[in-house]
Amino acid sequence: MNHVHTVTGLLSPHRVTGPVLTHEHLALDLRRDSDQEAVLSGTHHSAVTSELAELRGEFGLSLVVEQTCRGMGRDAAALARISRRSQVAVVASTGWYYEPFHLAEVAAAGVEELTEILLTEIEGGLDATGMRPGLIGEVGSHGERPSEPERRALLAAARAATEAGLPLATHAHLGRGGLVQLELLTGAGLPAHRICIGHQDLLDDPDVHRKLAAAGAYVAFDTIGKDGYQSDERRLRLLLALLDAGHAERVLLSCDISRHAYLRHEGGHGYGHLFRSFLPKARAAGIDDDLVDMLTRRNPLRFLTGSQGGEI
């Protein structure tokens, strides 16, 4: 079975005995003129570390997949410090977010050149740290169809993921465009089971969720607790519909903490909202402990390692 590349080295899936948060941010900077709060900088890292350590102690949190990539304020060295101090493993990422956050390199390069940029990071390490990413993501688009630069970034991500044997996670803005993303990525040769389509809990369309899962992709319900976008009650209804359709093995869950106001020490719902609020509601709706383990541990490990079937 493949190991997982973390910021502190290779991790055997057998050592991941507790839950995994599959889409989070621990260090990022998405500030633009219209939004100065979308940041998790050095002044917030102590609070981030404390939250993760607390979740490790209370719920056994074993691993966080950190999806901050190129142009999002990624800080690989900070991720390593947070991981060591919290004693929670962290997977780092490479790729390009959606177009408003693209670096200038995307506009100037073709698919082959962009692919080479990603492979250089995968093989040589992130941000001059030598740390290898374990994921390509969150690679984005922000409409029903990717823009031309987003299409090139997605194709490069698919090619790099295929060559390097890494999984790929997308940013489907407000949940839209996931089927087109999947078609583009699989058309470039990346198997569907190595792909996670992001933010599907923001799309109130169970038919799309079923189609993504039936095609073999992972379906991310990864903005849990962000009530300004969608209520958790509606998220739970959408999740139950996908489970009832027989696609439990294709669901990933997370909270996507992406601004400092979401941290618990600032009064936000925090990284633990999935465990403290959403999963108790899911259990009350009939989801048992084995299914919770599938959604929060076995599915993430299968996605990260490329395993299929009952290997984990």
From TrEMBL:
The keyword Hydrolase applies. It comes from the Bacteria. Keywords: Hydrolase, Metal-binding. InterPro entries: Phosphotriesterase. Belongs to the metallo-dependent hydrolases superfamily. Phosphotriesterase family. This is Phosphotriesterase. It comes from Streptomyces niphimycinicus.
